[in-house]
Design brief:
The protein has 451 residues and is an alpha/beta fold. It contains 12 helices and 19 strands. Strands 1, 2, 10, 11, 12, 13 and 19 form a 7-stranded mixed beta sheet that branches. Helix 1 crosses helix 12. Keywords: GTPase activation. GO terms for molecular function: GTPase activator activity; Rab GDP-dissociation inhibitor activity.
């Protein structure tokens, strides 16, 4: 391996594949390596045999009658795509959209007062919704009218509030919104994981609600779209983009060592006794000491910031209370179950080409708060009805301890507990800025996503 590259990318998770695609388009000479023999890393979609091998080291039990292996593409990390969000914009900008097909998620639901209710997708659903009483609906309507009419340059639309300065709790107070409505707005629409947002400037929350309502308006049923054949299609699509622009891919390559010089600067990567050189390396935390006390050269390169517990559940029926939906999201706001963080349920089915006929895949996840993680997702598991089989995973969340500009080692973040990809795209923008020293600019191309 005498050839020198501009960038070596380690791991084929979505973040890494987006970056290798964008860097290849930018004219960088990219080598992309992964220890696994499949694309996607932590964001892969597995067939039935791979799923059972990963979690049980066994074959799928014949007695469960789960159908053919190839009918399955089970996501390891459950996330949906906001139809007007940054990932959609990135897919359109790079033209990666042409490698993918999407389907709209049938509905978004929220758990409140012991029952699952649909998040209204239009005015008539809002009027009928049991989420709010008659007077509260009027107050909520005034709040949403304010958001729709708000214009940065027109102080008359601000109702005396500077949303860049005042906390979100003051905006709620201004419109007299009840605690339950605040839960619904902050967690089912702004998609915050906890209540810390209430004390921060309102602008961020209002921007999130506007993104949600814009995404909801795009296709009508829910704000989310999902790729046919699973989320593992996303990193593969960006890998294809990289290859078109000269990127080189090597799967099933064990990384033996990250080589640095006497000053601690990156030199290359050793695999199978050979070292390939490059100016920089980008990779997911598992390649840089994640799970070990110390990184390369006695220096900690990544730090654990928390853990996520996830349950992949196989069902032979739709989730009760979702109108027999072929797919849905259910958010259990933390206040409803006495927690600090929300619990998420994401469900897809055979109609998305990710499971056999009449099989649903439901994933329950949350941020770990106690020493008994599986007990923390019980409120979500109890909403699923009969579960044919389930696989529990406990995943540490890592992020880099340094920006990487000093040693040319740029590390991405682990995939968090959010139900969408907006934080993944934020990480892409952040790493690009660190690597290139300039912001990533996506030019607008008005292309509609078919879903």
């Amino acid at each position: 391996m005498d050839e020198e590259y501009d960038v070596i990318v380690l791991g084929t998770g979505l973040t890494e594949c987006i970056l290798s695609g964008l860097l290849s388009v930018d004219g960088q000479k990219v080598l992309h390596m992964d220890r696994n023999d499949y694309y996607g890393g932590d964001s892969a979609s597995l067939n039935l045999t791979q799923l059972y091998q990963k979690f049980r080291q066994s074959e799928p039990p014949a007695a469960l009658n789960l159908g053919r292996d190839r009918d399955y593409a089970v996501d390891l990390i459950p996330k949906f795509i906001l139809s007007s969000g940054e990932l959609t914009r990135m897919l359109v900008h790079t033209d990666v959209i042409r490698y993918l097909e999407f389907k709209v998620i049938a509905g978004s639901y929220v758990y409140r007062d012991g029952r699952v209710s649909k998040v209204p997708s239009n005015q008539s659903e809002a009027v009928m919704s049991p989420l709010m009483g008659m007077f509260e609906k009027r107050r909520a309507r005034n709040f949403f009218v304010f958001l729709q009419g708000w214009k940065e340059e027109d102080p008359a639309t601000h109702q005396g509030m500077d949303i860049n300065k005042i906390p979100m709790k003051d905006v709620y107070a201004k419109f007299g919104l009840e605690a339950g409505t605040q839960d619904f707005v902050g967690h089912a629409m702004a998609l915050w994981l906890d209540d810390d947002y209430k004390t921060r400037p309102a602008r961020e929350t209002i921007d999130r609600i506007i993104l949600y309502t814009r995404s909801m308006a795009r296709y009508g049923k829910s704000p989310y779209i999902y790729p046919l054949y699973g989320l593992g299609e996303l990193p593969q699509a960006f890998a294809r983009l990289s290859a078109i622009y000269g990127g080189t891919y090597m799967l099933d390559k064990k990384i033996d060592d990250i080589v640095v010089d006497a000053d601690g600067k990156f030199v290359g990567v050793t695999s199978g006794g050979e070292t390939v050189k490059a100016k920089r390396v980008i990779g997911d935390p598992s390649y840089f000491g994640a799970g070990k006390d110390v990184g390369e050269g006695g220096k900690m390169r990544v730090v654990e910031t928390g853990k996520v517990v996830r349950a992949i559940c196989i069902l032979k029926h739709p989730i009760p209370g979702t109108d027999d939906a072929d797919s849905c999201q259910i958010i259990i706001p933390q206040n409803q179950v006495g927690r600090k963080n929300d619990i998420y349920i994401a469900a897809v089915s055979a109609s998305h080409n990710v499971a056999a006929k009449d099989v649903w895949i439901a994933m329950v996840s949350t941020i770990v708060e106690t020493s008994v993680p599986e007990r923390e997702i019980l409120p979500g598991l109890q909403l699923l009805g009969n579960v044919v089989d389930k696989f529990i995973s406990l995943t540490p969340l890592y992020e880099p301890t340094a920006p990487g500009t000093a040693d040319n080692i740029f590390i991405t973040k682990s995939y968090d507990a959010t139900s969408h990809f907006e934080t993944v795209v934020e990480d892409v923008f952040d790493v690009w800025q660190r690597v290139k020293g300039e912001p990533l600019v996506l030019k607008k191309r008005e292309v509609e996503v078919e879903a």
